[in-house]
Amino acid sequence: MAMAEAAAEPAAIADETLLQIEGLRTHFRKDGAVVRSVDGVDLRIPRGRTLAVVGESGSGKSVTSLSIMRLIPEPAGRIVGGRMLYRDRTGRLLDLARLPVSEMRRIRGGEISMIFQEPMTSLNPVFTVGDQIAEAVALHAGKDRAEARRVAVEMLRLVEIPAAERRVDEYPHQMSGGMRQRVMIALALSCRPSLLIADEPTTALDVTIQAQILDLMRRLQREIGMSMLFVTHNLGVVAEIAHEVAVMYAGRVVEQAGVEAIFAHPRHPYTEGLIACIPRLRRHAPGQQRDREPGGRRHRLVAIPGSIPSPAALPPGCAFAPRCSRAVDACRLEIPDLVEVAPGHRSRCLRWRDL
Amino acid sequence: MQTYILKRILGMAVVMLIVATISFVIVRVVPGDPAAIMLGPDASPADIADLRARLGLERPLPAQYAIFMGDLLTGDLGRSIFLDRPVVQALAERAEPTICLTVMATLVALLIGIPAGIVSAVRRGSAVDQATLGLAMLGASIPSFWLGLLFIQFFAVRLGWFPVAGYGDPGAGFLERLRHLVLPALVLGLLSSALITRFTRASMLDVLGDDYVRTGRAKGLDEWTVIMKHAFRNALIPVLTVIGLTVAVLLGGAIVTETVFGLPGVGNLVVQAVLRRDYPVIQGTLIVVAAVYVLVNLTIDLLYTVVDPRVRY
Ligand SMILES: Nc1ncnc2c1ncn2[C@@H]1O[C@H](COP(=O)(O)OP(=O)(O)OP(=O)(O)O)[C@@H](O)[C@H]1O
Ligand SMILES: [Mg+2]
Predict the structure, then answer these.
(1) What pTM did the predictor assign?
(2) A94 and A107 part of one domain
């Protein structure tokens, strides 16, 4: 039995890996039907580096992030399978999927923190931003009120909020969206986490603010030395911030590789399609020459025809097959495995050799 | 903020002016001679003339109005005809049971309604939730006099835990007097808690799905802190309005319940005044009760600014 084998497999991860997700499945129950939002996600987050997770709307990026935090709204949703192996600060290897809630609370905010997709509503409107940051600091660092408040001011300064000493006493409604997202970042970083999960932290903001926030996050990552799981559907952002990229489609990871490899040699037709969608100017990976590609076909903004299948009605076989120009009969029979196509480069496509 | 309070006080003054004017007009538009009506069919013409003079009914209306308002401003609500003392004094003598009953009933309503609403929302769909909702439905449909009689029968007559009625012997101490208020306060409070429960539950359900509640959990806070600090503080904002209404309703309810429990409160005073057509007492009570309503309203509005930092005037 496959399940029994998986469970018997020793829980071990490489030293340079902070979090390794294997076969994560998170389902929701909605109107009597099972929605398989995340249905076998495999991810590796290296220490001190950034893994970007990309994919269309509805591919399960947020559900994966919330699963790591164990913040899936129960009882509608539930983690039904898989492991999330995480090495905590004391060196213990924990499976976050099975960790008791009391221990999970120590991890949340303290070792793994999250910035949500919704900056406008993620702060509590009835408390000052300083109180909200200080609350986390007092909880995890065991600091007293005065000390925690001092840290709050320091964090606001770190995320470059002007007049931090004054703004620490302001309420969220007195701040702009960009400022609130900075506060969220300050809150998330206030306990110096090992892993920061950022779920589209900039999509709700306008473009100039987006660039500032990205710069800020990159700088803070270097200073704190944390790993980042950066969720986005913007490949331009990926090229700027990520070391590794995982591409999700219909609740599964279809490709994971280093950022240069994925832009230079995508090994999944979906990734290939996504890259073809980027406007020409932004379509260059770090170190890659802009005009390397001679052909004219990918220079246009090509959207992938069709749409992502509903997680309540996934097709058998490869979920991308119905939209894939390279699909063959075998693709529709069973789900391809995620195979290593090059060192550190994995793809879930039968025809990766033909790409 | 200060200008807001000033504006509100000005608004209150306008409301009170209108209430006072209405109470002035009502007595004068009653068909016939108010003095004759007050004294009844058996009164002698001399008595009627005497009362007319005492009430100032001989003067032209504008002059009467000016005197009435002038007295009001100095805190003079006139004299009761039958009790033979100033209305203010009559009210003051009867205020204690009514105030204590309203306060106790409000406490009962809040202490039951708010926790029940929170638990119901947090355990949504559970047996506890169903039971709470059922009871709340029941509470909203039971008349207070009926529950009052039921409670007297059970807790006072059968079990003997509380006095059946009244406010204690004339020499009874404050605690003994309060003991007489326990049953009526329970009756009123329980019935009002139904509304507060349902509002608290709905409001909590609303905020429990909000993003900042998830942020609280993401920080690593325990469920108690997430629910009581982060969710409840937000849920309280709409519930405040209902609490204000409840206090007003309870004040009215206290006046009715006093009759069932034989309490010598303001309700009792008004009922007697109505039976005896003691107009100055009716007028005075109307004005004082209106003033209390207006004050409760102001308090609730000021509480909003304390609970919700987004409210600024
Ligand atoms: N609470 C829920 N109940 C039912 N279905 C849900 C719930 N949350 C998410 N889903 C479903 O799971 C699927 C994946 O959602 P998810 O939010 O992870 O997508 P996403 O990749 O983050 O998309 P986006 O880019 O729009 O944020 C969607 O089809 C969504 O409808
Ligand atoms: Mg999302």
Answers:
(1) 0.83
(2) yes
